[in-house]
Amino acid sequence: QVQLVESGGGLVQPGESLRLSCAASGFIFGRNPMKWYRQAPGKGREQVASIGSFGSTLYYANSVKGRFTISRDNAKNTLCLQMNSLKPEDTAVYYCNAPDYASWGQGTQVTVSS
C-alpha cells in the first residue's frame, strides 16, 4: 500500500523559508520520479517541482524557479522541498506524489502572511 506523508508546513512571514518533507512507503521509492504539487484555496492543483529517480532530472514551475529546491534521499525514502523567499501567493496545501501511483497524502499547509 502506497503511503505518502507530508510534513514541515506552517505559518511564516513573507521572505522567510520552510522545508517540506515527504516520507514515502509501499513502493520502490528509488526507482520512481517524484513530484510536489500545491493547491491554493479555490484553485486547482498545480505542479510545483519534479525530480527524476536519481535526482538528475529537475522541473520547476516558473512561479517558484530560483526560490524552491526539490531534493530526495533514496536511502531514507524521503522527498524534500526547500522553499526560500516565500511569498503570500505560495500559500497552499502542498502534496507529494509518485506519478505512477494514484495515492495522495494528506498534504501540509503552508501559509505566508504578515
Report on this structure.
- The chain is mostly beta strands and 114 residues long.
- It contains no helices and ten strands.
- The chain has strands at residues 3-7, 10-12, 18-25, 34-39, 45-51, 58-60, 68-73, 78-83, 92-97, 108-112.
- The N and C termini lie far apart (40 Å).
- Helices cover 0% and strands 48% of the residues.
- The protein has a six-stranded mixed sheet with strand order 2-10-9-4-5-6, with no helix packed on it.
Largest sheet: 6 strands, mixed
Give the distance, in angstroms, between the N- and C-terminal Cα atoms.
40 Å
**What's the helix-strand series?**
EEEEEEEEEE
Cross-sheet strand order for the largest sheet: 2-10-9-4-5-6
Classify the helix fraction into a percent range: under 10%
Overall, the morphology is globular
Strands, total number: 10
State the oligomer.
single chain
The number of helices is 0
Mean pLDDT: 95
Give the radius of gyration. 13 Å
Enumerate the spans where pLDDT stays under 50 for 5 or more consecutive residues.
Answer: none
Strand content: over 45%
Structure class: mainly beta
